[in-house]
Write a structure and sequence with these properties.
heterodimer; A: about 180 residues; alpha/beta; five-stranded parallel sheet; disordered C terminus; B: about 525 residues; alpha+beta; Beta Polymerase, domain 2; Cytochrome-c3 Hydrogenase, chain B; 2 domains; five-stranded mixed sheet; three-stranded antiparallel sheet; 17 helices; 15 strands; globular
C-alpha cells in the first residue's frame, strides 16, 4: 500500500490543458459548466468499431490516460448506447458490421451526434468500398464531424469531440435537429 | 530441412526471410505430410487457397507449417472440369484442429470445400460470410467482380446448444461494452459458471486478400500494416520481407536495425498497455493509470524518433521511411531507463497486491497439453510452457546477431500471461539498447540515403514469404507476383495473424471460470479481431 501511495505521490499530476479550437483555448471549467448547462451531466460517448484495423481504438483508449484525462473534462465513455449522446465510429463500415452499427445508432436517444474517426471512417481509407466494405461512415449514418488521420492522434480526436459539442450546442438547446 | 522419403515429395526452394521450402503434394501426400509433421511437433501456421483456373485450370490449397528448422509450404492443386467445377480437398482438421476455421474461411472466399474423411462432419456455417454476399458468390474467384456492393441478408447462425437443468445462454456482441473490436461471444452458463463459450468472428472482414490483388507491389506494405493496427510493424515487415526475398534485395544494415527497433517498440507499447488494462479489469485502476502513462511516454518518443506514434507507414520495401534524428538515441536511452525502473516498481506493486493476485492466479488456465494439441502460438503458448519464439528459434537479421531470450512461464493462467509481459518488457528494453548501440557504434553509420534502397521489379508468378514474430506471435505474409513485371502487380497475397490459432484456445481457457472473469481472461490473451477477420 505504501508503495502504491508513494508511486502516486512521486508521479504527480500529468494532465495537460485541453487542445485549442480555432485559436480559442477552451477553459476546462468553462467546458464543464457548458456541458452541465446543456446536458445536466457529463457528455456520454458510445464508441463503435465498425470494421477498423484497431489502430484508431488504440488512440481513443489513449484519451483515458492521465495526459489527456478525458473524464476530468466531463466526458465519459459509456457501455450502453441508450446512455449516450454521441456515437464515435471507427473503421470503414464492414458489410458484416453494418446492421450492428445501425442498431447502435438507433438505440441512442435524440438529439445525438455522430463523429467518424480516422481516414477509414472518413472515406473508407485504404479499404474503400468493396464486396466486404461499405466505405466511410457517412455512407451509412448522418455524420456531424470527421476526424482524419491514420490513426488520428488523441489530441485530434479530443479536438473533434470538443468541436462537435461546442458548435451545435445552441441548436441542441433549442431542440432543433442537428444538421451535418 | 528434410522430408521423409516415403512421402516421395520434392523439396523446392522458396524465397523467405528464414529457412523455407515448398512441396507439391497430391491428395494422399497432402494428408500424409500433415500427419508426419504433426508427429514431429510442427505447427500448422496458415491455410489458404488460390484460384489459378485462368493459368492452368486449377484451384490450389496451401498449408504453411512451422517446423523447428523453418517454414514448409505444402501445395495441393485441384483440376477443375465441367463435372468438378467446385473441387474438394482433404480436411486437415482431424490432424490440426486449428485448420477448421481456416477451412471455413477458404470456402467462404473461394468455394473450395474441405472434405472430412477422419473426423466428424465438416462445419458448413459461414465464418467470414455473414450474409453480406450471396452463398454462390466467392469473392476470391478471378471471374467475379470483387468491388460490387450487395445488400445484407441476415441469416440465422445456429450456435451449439448446451442442454440441462438451469443452463442458459448469454449473448455478447458484436458491439462490446468498451473501446474494443467487434465479435460475438455466446456463453452457456449455469449460475455464473461458464460451461461453454462459442465465438463467432468475421465482423471486421474487409476483403484484404481481394484488395491486395488491386495494389502494386510497391504499395502492398501499407495495406499489410492495416491488417491489425497493433501489429503494423510486424505485418509491414513481413510483407517487405516477402517482396525483398523474391527480388533478392538486401536492405541496408541500418534499416534492418531500425526495423527491429520499431518492432520492439511495438511490443513494448502493447505489453505496457495490456499490463495496465489487466490491472483495470481486475479492479485495480491504479495500474491502468500508471501503465497508460508509460505507454503514452513511449508513443510520444515514437513520434520524435520514427515520425509517428503508431508506425503504420514506417517499414517500406527496401528499408524504412526515415532515419533516426541525431538526438533520438540519447532520448530513447533516457526513456528506457524510466520504463525499466517504473515497470520494476509497478511489478512489485502488482505482485504484492493480494486482491489482484487473487483474480490473476488460476484464472483462465490453458494447460500445456491443450495448447500443444491446438497449436497455440506466440505469447499465449509461452505462458503455457511452450518455449517458441522465432526471434530465438529461427532468427532473421538483425536478430541473428543478438541472441534474444525466450521468456516462458508454465502455469498457463492470467497470472502467467501477466508475468510473460513483464519479462518481455525487460527483454525488449535490452534488445532496444543493443540495437541502439549498434546504430550508434559506427559500423552502420547514419548518412543520407542509407535507410532505404529501391526494390527491383519482381519476375512474374513468383511466390515468397515473410514471417515475423510480432508481440502476439508469428505473423505471415505470402506474396505471389503478378504477370505484369513492368508494373509490379500482385497476383495473390495471403496474410495470417496468430490470433487464428489462439482464438479457439480462449474457448478452452474459460471453462469452469465465472462470467465476470471473462473480460480479464480475454484481455490476457488480447487477440486481434481485425487480424483474423482479414
Amino acid at each position: 500500500m505504501w508503495n502504491t501511495l508513494s508511486r502516486m505521490a512521486r508521479t504527480g499530476l500529468l494532465t495537460e490543458p485541453l487542445p485549442a479550437l480555432d485559436g480559442s483555448s477552451p477553459e476546462l471549467t468553462a467546458l464543464q459548466s457548458e456541458l452541465l448547462a446543456v446536458l445536466g451531466r457529463a457528455l456520454c460517448i458510445r464508441q463503435v468499431d465498425a470494421g477498423s484495423c484497431n489502430g484508431c481504438e488504440l488512440e481513443i483508449q489513449a484519451l483515458h490516460n492521465p495526459y489527456y484525462n478525458l473524464e476530468g473534462a466531463g466526458i465519459q465513455f459509456v457501455a450502453s448506447p441508450r446512455h449516450a449522446d454521441m456515437l464515435l465510429v471507427t473503421g470503414p463500415v464492414s458489410v458484416n458490421m453494418e446492421e450492428a452499427l445501425r442498431r447502435t445508432y438507433d438505440a441512442i436517444p435524440d438529439p445525438k451526434f455522430v463523429i467518424a474517426v480516422g481516414d477509414c471512417g472518413a472515406c473508407g481509407g485504404i479499404f474503400g468500398t468493396s464486396y466486404a466494405s461499405r466505405g466511410g461512415v457517412a455512407n451509412i449514418l448522418p455524420v456531424n464531424f470527421t476526424v482524419t488521420g491514420c490513426p488520428p492522434t488523441p489530441t485530434a480526436i479530443l479536438r473533434g469531440i470538443l468541436q462537435t459539442v461546442r458548435v451545435p450546442l445552441t441548436e441542441v438547446q433549442r431542440n432543433r435537429p442537428i444538421s451535418a | 530441412m528434410k522430408l521423409p522419403e516415403f512421402l516421395e515429395l520434392q523439396l523446392l526452394p522458396l524465397p523467405a526471410n528464414l529457412p523455407a521450402g515448398r512441396a507439391r503434394a497430391d491428395c494422399r501426400q497432402w494428408l500424409q505430410l500433415a500427419a508426419t509433421l504433426r508427429e514431429s511437433g510442427a505447427r500448422l501456421l496458415a491455410l489458404w487457397g488460390a484460384d489459378d483456373r485462368d493459368r492452368d485450370g486449377c484451384f490450389r490449397i496451401y498449408a504453411a507449417y512451422l517446423l523447428t528448422e523453418g517454414v514448409l509450404l505444402a501445395e495441393h492443386a485441384m483440376e477443375t472440369t465441367e463435372a468438378t467445377a467446385d473441387p474438394v480437398y482433404p480436411s486437415l482438421a482431424a490432424i490440426f484442429p486449428v485448420a477448421q476455421r481456416m477451412q471455413r474461411a477458404v470456402y467462404d472466399l473461394l468455394g473450395i470445400a474441405a472434405e472430412e474423411s477422419l473426423g466428424p462432419e465438416a462445419d458448413r456455417r459461414g465464418w467470414l460470410r455473414h450474409g453480406g454476399w450471396p452463398e454462390n458468390f466467392f469473392p476470391l474467384r478471378r471471374d467475379v467482380d470483387g468491388s460490387q456492393q450487395r445488400p445484407n441478408i441476415s441469416a440465422p447462425y445456429p450456435f451449439v446448444m448446451v442442454e440441462g437443468s438451469g443452463v442458459h445462454e448469454i449473448a455478447v456482441g458484436p458491439v462490446h461494452a468498451g473501446t474494443i473490436e467487434p465479435g460475438h461471444f455466446r456463453f452457456s452458463v449455469v449460475g455464473e459458471k461458464m460451461l461453454r463459450l462459442e465465438e463467432r468472428l468475421g465482423y471486421t472482414h474487409k476483403g484484404v486478400a481481394r484488395l491486395f490483388e488491386t495494389m502494386p507491389q510497391s504499395g502492398g506494405h501499407r495495406l499489410a500494416a492495416r491488417i491489425s493496427g497493433d501489429a503494423a510493424v510486424a505485418f509491414s515487415w513481413a510483407y517487405c520481407a516477402a517482396l525483398e526475398s523474391i527480388t533478392g534485395t538486401t536492405c541496408p544494415a541500418r534499416a534492418t536495425l531500425l526495423r527491429a527497433l520499431a518492432l520492439e517498440h511495438e511490443r513494448l507499447a502493447n505489453h505496457l498497455g495490456d499490463l495496465g488494462a489487466l490491472g483495470n479489469d481486475a479492479g485495480f485502476a491504479f495500474g491502468l493509470t500508471h501503465f497508460s502513462r508509460l505507454k503514452e511516454d513511449l508513443l510520444r518518443s515514437n513520434a520524435a524518433a520514427f515520425g509517428a506514434r503508431y508506425l503504420l507507414d514506417y517499414v517500406v520495401p527496401g528499408g524504412v521511411a526515415v532515419d533516426l534524428p541525431a538526438e533520438a538515441p540519447a532520448r530513447l536511452l533516457e526513456l528506457y531507463a524510466d520504463l525499466e525502473q517504473s515497470a520494476t516498481n509497478l511489478r512489485s506493486i502488482y505482485d504484492e497486491h493480494a486482491g489482484l493476485q487473487d483474480r490473476f492466479r488460476g484464472t483462465g488456465r490453458l494447460q500445456q497439453s491443450v495448447a500443444e494439441k491446438l497449436g497455440a502460438l506466440g505469447l499465449v503458448a509461452r505462458a503455457s510452457g511452450i518455449a517458441r519464439d522465432l526471434r530465438v528459434d529461427n532468427p532473421w537479421p538483425p536478430y541473428d546477431n543478438i541472441a534474444a531470450k525466450c521468456i516462458v512461464q508454465s502455469a498457463g493462467d492470467v497470472a502467467a500471461r501477466v508475468q510473460i509481459r513483464f519479462d518481455e518488457v525487460y527483454e525488449s528494453l535490452r534488445l532496444c539498447r543493443a540495437f541502439l548501440q549498434e546504430l550508434s557504434a559506427g559500423t552502420v553509420p547514419a548518412s543520407a540515403g542509407q535507410v532505404n534502397i529501391p526494390v527491383p521489379a519482381a519476375a512474374p508468378y513468383q511466390l515468397g514469404l515473410g514471417v515475423i514474430e510480432s508481440w502476439r506471435g508469428p505473423v505471415l505474409i505470402v506474396l505471389e507476383t503478378g504477370p505484369d513485371a513492368a508494373n509490379g502487380t500482385i497476383r495473390r497475397c495471403h496474410a495470417h495473424d496468430p490470433s487464428w490459432q489462439n482464438w479457439p484456445l480462449i474457448e478452452y481457457a474459460v471453462i469452469g471460470d465465472i462470467v465476470p472473469d471473462f473480460p480479464l481472461i480475454n484481455k490476457s490473451f488480447n487477440l486481434s479481431y481485425s487480424g483474423q477477420d482479414g
